[in-house]
UniProtKB/TrEMBL annotation:
Residues 9-20 have a biased composition (Low complexity). Residues 1-20 are annotated as: Disordered. It comes from Streptomyces cavourensis. The lineage of its organism: Bacteria, Bacillati, Actinomycetota, Actinomycetes, Kitasatosporales. This is Small CPxCG-related zinc finger protein.
């Protein structure tokens, strides 16, 4: 079945939607694509695709 393939594929990358602020978006720490977070966000920011992949890695690593 092709259901397994759709289950394992990451979601399509979508451009971040504006939050009403003029502040630029932070870059993903892995692929340097824009994230959903403003640059003032503290910590390691990930784009939706990298966040999906990291969640899969941490779920399967234990």
């Amino acid at each position: 079945m092709d259901d397994d393939a759709s289950y394992c594929t990451p979601p399509a990358a979508t451009p971040p939607t504006g939050t009403g602020t003029a502040e630029p978006f932070a870059e993903c720490v892995l692929c340097r694509e824009p994230t959903e977070y403003p640059e003032s966000t503290k910590g390691a920011t990930l784009c939706p695709v990298c966040a999906w992949q990291e969640a899969g890695r941490s779920a399967c690593s234990g």
